[in-house]
DNA sequence: TATGAAAGTTTTAAATA
DNA sequence: TATTTAAAACTTTCATA
């Protein structure tokens, strides 16, 4: 699917504030309701626009600890990988999981209530799948956090 | 502000799909429109509910590279830190930035179009502020990515 | 907490450039 | 083909019971 500059402007508005009305978006991108609506629908159907969410204040809700977890493994078989990915997807405290190129195999972002909850997560994970080496980096301060793309 | 189990259910619905109508949320949490609306408004005013956003498909929009960047610095003065944080906040390719406890001082998540764009970012950053040691981890596969809290 | 009415929004369809 | 207009269905918001 081709995306032109008007589409890009619409996406930029939406990722800044998805609660804007069609009229407001139309005004901001210099168009009007119906064409904007058609573009949004097309991009939704194409999967370019995904789920609508709200950002919640993690601290206020008692999620006071955030860890980045660096994982090295000696296992590289398909079976092991399948079990590992499944475990990550199922655990709700894992907010991000990436397979990496190079020395370190995986990185996770894990959001939990406290250090103890992290330990519970860690114990559960290593009992489910064998990992070679795990380093946890504890976040002291969230300087920035956004999902917005620099369109 | 105190959050009860009904509030938590509402938040959970909203972070799953912020486009749900009040009626749908009310039904899901076993209440009716007005109380749900009052609770949502209260939580918005308290800042527990933040901005509404849409998730965009980064790959489809040409953002094909994602790096996690581990930074060690020898500088720990207030002036340096101020300049560094400012640089991070201003750069739109930095999606996450955390100050860490321990050996590594900062971790960034950087989303760019390609490896070349990452290099441009890296050169710009180190010319703005002095950093001691930088390790970039390249993501090969985004296994999971969510901002949802395990309420 | 529930009801309901006013204002505003989304969605579809038809008409127009 | 893309945009404007129009109208129906639905949602949010808020006053009142």
Automatic annotation (TrEMBL), chains A, B:
PROSITE patterns: HTH_ASNC_1, HTH_ASNC_2. GO terms for biological process: regulation of DNA-templated transcription; response to amino acid. The keyword Cell inner membrane does not apply. Residues 3-64 form the HTH asnC-type domain. Keywords: DNA-binding, Transcription, Transcription regulation. GO terms for molecular function: sequence-specific DNA binding. GO terms for cellular component: cytosol. It holds the Pfam family AsnC_trans_reg. InterPro entries: ArsR-like_HTH, AsnC-type_HTH_dom, Dimeric_a/b-barrel, Tscrpt_reg_AsnC-like, Tscrpt_reg_AsnC/Lrp_C, Tscrpt_reg_HTH_AsnC-type_CS, WH-like_DNA-bd_sf, WH_DNA-bd_sf. PANTHER family: DNA-BINDING TRANSCRIPTIONAL ACTIVATOR DECR (PTHR30154:SF17), LEUCINE-RESPONSIVE REGULATORY PROTEIN (PTHR30154). This is Lrp/AsnC family transcriptional regulator. It comes from Thalassococcus halodurans.
């Amino acid at each position: 699917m081709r995306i032109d500059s008007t589409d890009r402007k619409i996406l930029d508005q939406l990722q800044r504030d998805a609660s804007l009305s069609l009229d407001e978006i139309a005004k901001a991108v210099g168009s009007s309701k119906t064409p904007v609506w058609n573009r949004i629908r097309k991009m939704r159907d194409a999967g370019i626009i995904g789920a609508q969410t709200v950002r919640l204040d993690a601290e206020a809700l008692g999620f006071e600890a955030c860890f980045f977890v660096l994982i090295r493994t000696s296992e590289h078989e398909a079976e092991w990988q399948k079990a590992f990915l499944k475990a990550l997807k199922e655990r709700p405290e894992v907010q991000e999981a990436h397979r990496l190129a190079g020395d370190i195999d995986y990185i996770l972002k894990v959001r939990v209530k406290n250090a103890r909850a992290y330990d519970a997560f860690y114990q559960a994970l290593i009992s489910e799948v064998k990992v070679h080496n795990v380093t946890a980096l504890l976040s002291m301060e969230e300087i920035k956090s956004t999902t917005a793309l620099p369109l």
